[in-house]
Amino acid sequence: MARNDILMAIDLYKPFTNPITKETFRCISSTPEAYTMEWKVDPGGYVPFEHVHVAQDEIFHVEKGEIRAMINRKEVHGWTGDTVTAPRGVRHIAYNDKQVPLVCLVEYKPGLDHYTTMQCFAGLTLDGQIDRRGLVNIPKIMYLLKRGDILSLPRPAFAPDFLFRLGMNFFFVFGSILGWESLYKKYTYKS
User: Fold this and answer.
1) Alpha helix (H) residue ranges in the chain
2) Number of Cβ within a 10 Å radius of residue 31
3) How does DSSP assign 75-124, residue by residue?
4) Nearest by Cα to 83 from 107, 66, 59, 100
5) Contact 102, 65 (CB under 8 A)
């Protein structure tokens, strides 16, 4: 195997950035109880789609700046020292529409397998598999989530659970035919 072909799992303790959404992510800790990351959002940065965490609460501890979020269609603001929570199963999206960076410690509780979810998300982001809005390649992330039998599922708020799971099953078959297993191994180093 050539040096460039060596499989290297994504190390989430090293920061990675989505250049379009202006978000930088860095894992602080990962346990079954909680996955904790530092989330930096440059001015004008945003989460690219409203989503739901099926089995986890997402808790934003604002360390610097101001977060503006829509949680269950209600606008919520958090300033330095505040905590903003998006309970499991509730639609939400967040923005930094201020002129200073936003820095939060974000916890996902329980932690479940969120490290693997984030490895897949990071891998696609780092490989440039993002659209003009900064959203990762939908068919590939759906394949990867199904392939990993992920419990920490984030799903788009507009997609009912049954439709999302149907899509994961479809793209799992599609991706299996196209050889996307190599992406899962590359990002997670699991076989």
Assistant:
1) 114-126, 138-147, 161-178, 181-188
2) 11
3) EEEEETT-EEEE-TT--EEEE--SSS-EEEEEEEES-TTHHHHHHHHHHH
4) 59
5) yes
Q: Which residue has the tokens 């986890």?
A: 56
CA distances from 89 to 17, 21, 111, 156 (A): 26, 24, 15, 11
Phi-psi region of 119 (alpha: psi -120 to 50; beta: other; left: phi over 0): alpha
The pLDDT, as a whole number, for residue 8 is 62
Return all residues near 4 (Cβ < 8 A) that are at least 6 apart. none
Residue 4 binned pLDDT confidence (cut-offs 50, 70, 90): very low
Contact assessment for residue 21 and residue 39, using Cβ atoms and an 8 Å cutoff: no
List, for residues 32-60, the tens digit of each pLDDT value.
999 999 999 999 999 999 999 999 999 99
- Can you name the residues that pair with 62 across neighbouring β-strands? 104
Collapse the DSSP code of 61 into the 3-class scheme (helix H, G, I; strand E, B; otherwise coil) and give the result.
Answer: strand
188 within 8 A of 117, measured Cβ to Cβ: no
Q: Is the pLDDT of residue 156 over 60?
A: yes
Quote the CA–CA distance of 118 and 138 in Å, as a whole number.
Answer: 14
pTM here is: 0.93
